[in-house]
Amino acid sequence: MKGHPFRSGFTLVEVLMSLAISAVILSAVALAFNASAVTYQKNQELHAAVNNGRQALLRMMAQLRTGFSVDPNAPANKCNFFAVTGPNSVEDLTYEFRTSDNTLYLITNSNAKEYVLCTGVQSLTFDRLLTADASDCRGVAVTMTVQSGDQQETLSSAVAIRRNLEL
Q: Splitting the chain (167 residues) into consecutive groups of 10 residues, what average pLDDT does each group show?
């Protein structure tokens, strides 16, 4: 057999260089994919926290709207009032934010039961708009900041207490 002076194919150096370039490209793709997965997970957790906060705000606003006798002297982290729960049913309720566990609670004062409305709350304030004689509230504004990991989102809502509106 006669030898070929020029062989076709890749040399060992060329194969090693292509492997090194492929490894760098695959490492960059893996890092980008990992960063994307981590960001997606953080966004999902923040979305869940914000959704829980919105649901808590919606419940509070609905009960306050139809409630009455909102305590104008309660601290900024509490809202005490009476809510109409049925045709002939009224319940004494309190919404309370506790910084000790960053949780918003619904407390039924008649039977002293506590229900967790929202966790991961970093701050919550109830601002009251008083009636002319300052004995009750015409409205309540709620500002709540929820946190998931290192991300925070502030939610706010306001409601007029229908039974206390002055015409």
A: 69 94 96 95 92 95 90 94 85 95 93 93 95 89 94 94 64
Q: Are strands 151-160 and 137-148 parallel, antiparallel or unpaired?
A: antiparallel
Q: How many domains in the chain?
A: 1
Residue 145 and residue 121: Cα distance in Å, rounded? 6
Instruction: Provide the pLDDT for residue 127.
Output: 96
Distances in Å between the Cα of 71 and the Cα atoms of 83, 122, 137, 138, 148 are 12, 23, 7, 11, 32
Whether 24 is covered by a domain: the verdict is no
Q: Could you tell me the sign of the dihedral formed by the alpha carbons of 113, 144, 103, 134, in that order?
A: negative
User: Per the domain annotation, does 2 fall within a domain?
Assistant: no
Q: What is the model's pTM? A: 0.77
> Could you tell me which of 106, 110, 87, 84 has the C-alpha nearest to residue 97?
106
Q: How far apart are CA 146 and CA 136, in angstroms?
A: 29
> Is 8 among the domain residues?
no
Range of the domain at 148: 32-164
Q: Is residue 23 part of a domain?
A: no
